[in-house]
Amino acid sequence: MSIQEQISLKPYNSFHCECIASHFAIITKAAELKEALDWCMLHKKPFIVMGGGSNMLFTQDIDALVLKMEVKGIQKTNETSSEVFLTVGAGENWHHFVSYCVQKGWGGIENLSLIPGTVGASPIQNIGAYGTEVQESIVSIEAFDTKKMQWVILNNNECAFGYRTSLFKLNPNRFIIGTVKFILNKQPILKTDYGAIREVLHDRNIKHPSLENVSNAIIQIRSQKLPDPKVLGNAGSFFKNPSIPAQQFENLKAQFPNLIAYPISDETYKVAAGWLIEACGWKGVRKGNVGCYEKQALVIVSYGIQSGKEVYDFSEEIIQSVNEKFGIQLEREVNII
Ligand code: EPU
């Protein structure tokens, strides 16, 4: 493992914003992690872990050791007549892993096709789309516990998974994910209830969809609705869909009958942040080199920003205006560094 100095992170983040890391190392083997952390202790430097850089916004230069996780490998560790168990390196590209499973006929994560980022980042924010969350297919996670300075195995029920959250998100820098163990289904039950999936399958005249059909439908939906980071810098959904008390929902619904929300318990509703942002007039708005994406208001795009600060300031304006109009405080989904 070599530690490089004064490295630009521009090629490593999906907003393509400039940010200089004082120190940078690529981790390709789990054993190198301990070495890197020992270096941090010796030099009294903090560390920042990054995967694909697709959910990070760099707002300033970094005086720390940036660890780019590139531990690779997809290993079948066990198999029954109905299930297969895979241990996957944190540095594997997420969509590449999904495609591999789809090709093999192993189901469970096909609805998460085309989500940017790496396998190691997927449990941190418990990525989710089209009625599926990654936690449903995770058995356990092997992570380096930086407090105990040793590798630990965390079973699914120890990972505190929730909507776009986990133990890893709640305790930043405590655990560094090395591998994720998945359970996938050889006779998968496909989740095609989501309206847009049904429409694509219907348009393609597919009555009995295969895993591949569902994955392809999702690739089509995402490609049409979400900007390609290679063309327009972005980090997918910039905000989380907020939860509000039922009473607040009732009051808002009376005032704004088109409000999109659904109950998640007797007392709480989840509101579509995209709708709130659009209702405040932000959809398609551009200010300087930053904009609210014209086809999905939840996504902030870069038209060539220099610093992530430009995106941060723009997001702050959106948060304020949603708060003023609806009394709802949006939370960023993207990690601000
Ligand atoms: N909506 C609007 N205006 C918009 C965007 C959305 O009115 O600009 C409305 C839609 O019409 C729909 C509702 O909001 O009725 C929900 O929209 P959508 O189904 O597109 O999903 P979302 O809540 O906007 C979430 C995830 C996405 C994921 C989709 C599909 C979050 C923060 N985002 O978006 O995840 O792909 O559901 O399941 O939960 C990501 O995290 O990067 C991401 C793209």
Given helix and strand content, the structural type is alpha+beta
Output mean pLDDT: 96
Order of helices and strands: EEHEEEEEHEEEEHEHHEEHEEHEEEHE
List the total number of helices.
8
Low-confidence stretches: none
Query: What value does the Rg take, in angstroms?
Result: 21 Å
Beta-strand share of residues: 25-35%
The total of beta strands comes to: 20
Morphology:
globular
**Helical content (DSSP H or I, runs of 4+):** 25-40%
How widely separated are the two ends?
A: 24 Å
Major β-sheet profile: 5 strands, antiparallel
Instruction: Spell out which ligands are present.
Output: uridine-diphosphate-2(N-acetylglucosaminyl) butyric acid
Strand order of the largest sheet: 6-7-12-10-11
Ordered list of secondary-structure elements with their pairings:
Layout: E1 4-8, E2 20-27, H1 30-43, E3 47-50, E4 56-57, E5 62-69, E6 74-79, E7 83-89, H2 94-104, E8 128-129, E9 132-133, E10 138-145, E11 150-155, H3 167-170, E12 175-185, H4 195-203, H5 211-225, E13 233-237, E14 243-245, H6 246-255, E15 261-263, E16 268-271, H7 273-279, E17 286-287, E18 290-292, E19 299-302, H8 309-326, E20 335-336
Helix pairs in contact: 4-5
Uridine-diphosphate-2(N-acetylglucosaminyl) butyric acid (EPU) binds at residues 129-130, 226, 236-237, 240-241, 260, 272, 274-275, 278, 283, 296-298, 333.
